[in-house]
Amino acid sequence: MDAEGWTRELGGPGSVRELGGVRVSAVRCPALSLTGGSAGPYHLALLLAGELVLDQEGRSARAGRGDLVLLDGGRPFRLAFTAPRNTVVTAHLPVVPGDPRQCVARTLSGREGLGALIAGLLTGLARDATPYRSAEERRLGVAVLELSGALLDSGHSEAVPEPLLPRVQAYVLQHLGDGRLTPDDVAAAHHISTRYLHRLFQRQGLTVAAWIKAQRLERCRRDLADPRLAHLPVHVVAARWGFAQPADFSRAFRTAYGISPSCFRVRSLPTNSARAANDRHLTAQQTHG
């Protein structure tokens, strides 16, 4: 369900604010329960009054005043507001960091740290009727998304094993030949923010761009040493693995391996290696003859 559907299902007077790709809604509702989970964004709910219970992904989260909880609108859930009067401010997010299944149905405090920051921002946006310009609305939306992502990341990253990085790396390896592949593309393909993607690699002492370049260079090095590909010019081998500019490839290859791609190929191909060894042998014989 989208932001409008959220306020409609809760059955109370509400408002929805557009902030680029993010929406923020405020609703007052009576005690009620609803189920769903066929489609929709993620809903990060801040409870200002009342109490709610969310069941999703085999977990049950109970939130009271000042707590936050994440619901995935695209997965089955049961949500119950149990107090006679409830007030909830919700950030409707297009993406969340990491594996969403690890983030949902976990009670997060909105009274300290990152939780207090996002709670204050959401409460302020719900009360603010200022007609911002489009660019300002987009910036506010980015602020909501980044703070929400930081909160959700800190809420589960330490306790949950990280199975996402191997999947991300496998995806990159499958698309190394696409020279237009960027960290933004990789993040979007896994429904995470680019910031979170960088954090995944940083935990392993890596950067996204450096890891991608290293994998491309290694594939090029392997192909340059393959006799079956000896008919391919060096620049074609480079282009096969995402290097569009021969000069950039040559420079990167020399930096990584201390030798130019052409020289590496000459030394690596079996025929050339045998010829070079034979030449050295003849030279030695002539020297001692």
From TrEMBL:
SUPFAM superfamilies: Homeodomain-like. Gene3D superfamilies: Homeodomain-like. Residues 166-267 form the HTH araC/xylS-type domain. InterPro entries: AraC-bd_2 (IPR035418), AraC_XylS_family_regulators (IPR050204), Homeodomain-like_sf (IPR009057), HTH_AraC (IPR018060). One of its GO terms (molecular function) is DNA-binding transcription factor activity. Keywords: DNA-binding, Transcription, Transcription regulation. It holds the Pfam family HTH_18. This is HTH araC/xylS-type domain-containing protein. The lineage of its organism: Bacteria, Bacillati, Actinomycetota, Actinomycetes, Kitasatosporales.
